[in-house]
Write the structure tokens for this entry.
Amino acid sequence: MAEHAAQAGSGAMIARVMLSEFRSYAALDLHVDGRLVVLTGANGAGKTNLLEALSTMAPGRGLRGARLSDLARALPGEEGARSWSVGATVRSGFGDTQLGVGYMPEAGDGGQAKRVVRIDGEPVSSPAALAERLRLVWLIPAMDRLFHDGAAERRRFLDRLITSSDPAHARRWGAYEIAMRERISALKNGAGGRWLDALERTMAETAVAVAASRREGTKRLVAAMIDVKTSAFPMADIAVAGAVEAMLEAMPAVEAEDRFAVTLANQRAIDSEMGRTASGPHLSDLVVRHREKGREARACSTGEQKALLIRLVLAGAAVPAAGAPDALVLLLDEIAAHLDEGRRRALFDEVDALGVQVWMTGTDRSAFSALEGRAQFLRVGDGAVRA
Ligand SMILES: Nc1ncnc2c1ncn2[C@@H]1O[C@H](COP(=O)(O)OP(=O)(O)OP(=O)(O)O)[C@@H](O)[C@H]1O
Ligand SMILES: [Mg+2]
């Protein structure tokens, strides 16, 4: 496996993590080396919190989907919003880069709360800039419900996987969302046809761009899955179901833009009444099938669903990405929990073969014994992390 799965690995990694007032951590300064990272500790020790801290460096909400204000360390008897920060040193062949994310209540111009992102000390305007420095891919227990959850969860899962190998996807998505919001408020304010036409044109262009990068990203994921010739995890067939994606399948991009702009113009009355946009890439769904079983993932067993997810996430981490950063970090929360001994060993081998930095958590160190000598084992507890 090692020979074909190692494209994504370039040795770039997170070398140091610094937390301040983040969840259960008052302060943490953790140095790690390039090997796999295994975090063990009792329930409630702070393992997931540490992975969550790393995940704040991806665009969008972190791995628990929490609000920024909820990430601050809550002290008993203390009310009100507090600030927190997460810093990471990303080390590659080109040297070190310092990434920082922080939350400051009431720091914005109007006294509103603000997320601050810094790269090498310089503030950057958009969290999407972080995706250009660090690729983050994660799998957490809550995703066991992915195939039963609504389309929104699956869509976000796909968009995150795609963004990790195509950082511009997050910017395209952001541009679409802004145009969509502006159009809804323009409809509410009774804006004129010209202005609505312009907003719908922007929406159509960005929607088709989003659909196109989903299509390309999906292809790259499938190629990465096929590339791993022997995997303990099943091959997944994946497709994006959505109105604009279907247009893009059926016609050239410019025509799809025109078609979607017409759709938007025709649904102004409905959208205005509902206060949201009735069709578009914000409603698309990710459809996953278990190839060998010939069955949709939602009809597969719990174990099969987990295995499909693992295959997809490993593919997300294996996609060689031109234009994406070297540093790829894979976060696997409680990964050993539902796997039998054989699958666990297979997972460790496949993860090791990726050649990227992987952070894994579990309550039980013995579940990771197959990694002895290949990983650094860190013990989490009492707001600290020790070797
Ligand atoms: N905002 C917060 N401020 C302070 N503590 C918090 C905050 N949010 C969560 N915690 C606490 O942090 C502790 C560690 O949580 P975490 O989810 O990281 O545990 P864990 O090690 O992953 O445990 P498990 O094995 O059960 O998954 C928990 O006791 C939780 O209640
Ligand atoms: Mg946990």
